[in-house]
Structure to design on (314 residues):
């Protein structure tokens, strides 16, 4: 079973997407799943047969340690599986966002990773969208960011009918909305001052309406809003001295020039975002190439979630 550079743990749909990328990168990898049904579905989509029986049984068979691992299981299992891999001795792990079911799991996982000298990254693939990469370039060319705003409204009328494991819907803010928030603060800087307001309640999530503003460590002013009880969508806008950069949807970049009310889509090379799940190719490549400059570390995630919980989700 040895000589595999990377373990892909999980046979989920997201694991299928990772498999497409790993194949394209020519990576030597092994897929470890749990049940037969998911393994069959995985095989039908990828022509790869996962090892079944779960990661615990596989580790108990004393396989050779891989160079790295990618964890792509349900949010309720992220912390459990990643901890198993860390304790087994794997030193480099990419785990799907947000790294745990809640902030306490993420904090505990970070402590374990430090104890075992493992480096763990959170899979915020939207950092690697072509639209986001281009936005960063334009912001730098324009002399920096002046301000930004974002919306992370979720479609609660759809979410309420989804069948999820216990605790998943209750953690929707950290598990899903954090994608938008992470992308905004990844470019705009980390909040150093923030005032936040919340209201609203659903049977499975509280709060549901969010508003706030602040300033980042890059001295960019920001404001945000979300209303899970009304129509809306994810979006981010970055404002410089020359341009308004609009990510709505996040996968595409629109630009507005100073002195104009017109907006137009920026022509970009979207090949990686069109041939693979957007952002996943460049994120996985960066992880495997040890290029950590744009990846979210577990330490960073703990710091960010602490801020989010203290302010945005209070």
């Amino acid at each position: 079973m040895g000589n595999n550079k990377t373990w892909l743990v999980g046979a989920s749909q997201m694991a299928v997407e990772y498999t497409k990328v790993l194949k394209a990168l020519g990576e030597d990898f092994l897929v470890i799943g749990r049940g037969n049904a998911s393994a069959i579905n995985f095989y039908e989509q990828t022509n790869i047969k996962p090892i079944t029986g779960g990661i615990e049984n596989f580790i108990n068979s004393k396989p050779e340690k891989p160079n790295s691992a990618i964890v792509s299981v349900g949010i309720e299992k992220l912390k459990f599986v990643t901890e198993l891999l860390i304790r087994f001795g794997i030193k480099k792990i990419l785990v799907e966002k947000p790294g745990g079911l809640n902030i306490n799991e993420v904090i505990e996982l970070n402590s374990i990773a430090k104890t075992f000298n493992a480096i763990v990254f959170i899979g915020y693939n939207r950092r690697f969208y072509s639209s986001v990469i281009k936005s960063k370039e334009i912001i730098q060319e324009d002399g920096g960011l002046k301000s930004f705003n974002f919306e992370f409204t979720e479609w609660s009328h759809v979410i309420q009918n989804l069948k999820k494991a216990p605790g998943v819907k209750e953690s929707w803010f950290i598990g899903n909305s954090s994608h938008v928030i992470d992308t905004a603060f990844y470019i705009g800087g980390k909040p150093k001052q923030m005032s936040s307001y919340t209201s609203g309640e659903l049977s499975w999530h509280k709060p549901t309406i969010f508003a706030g503003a602040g300033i980042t460590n890059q001295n960019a002013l920001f404001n945000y809003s979300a209303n899970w009880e009304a129509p809306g969508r994810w979006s981010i806008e970055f404002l410089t001295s020359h341009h308004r950069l609009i990510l709505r949807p996040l996968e595409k970049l629109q630009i507005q020039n100073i002195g104009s009310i017109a907006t137009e889509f920026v022509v970009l090379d979207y090949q990686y975002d069109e041939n693979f799940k957007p952002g996943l190719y460049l994120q996985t490549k960066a992880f495997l190439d040890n290029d950590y400059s744009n990846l979210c570390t577990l330490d960073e995630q703990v710091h960010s979630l602490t801020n989010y919980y203290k302010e945005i989700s209070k």
Q: What stands out?
A: Residues 18 and 128 are 14 Å apart (CA to CA). The chain has two domains: 6-123, 127-276+297-312. The first strand starts at residue 6 and ends at 9.
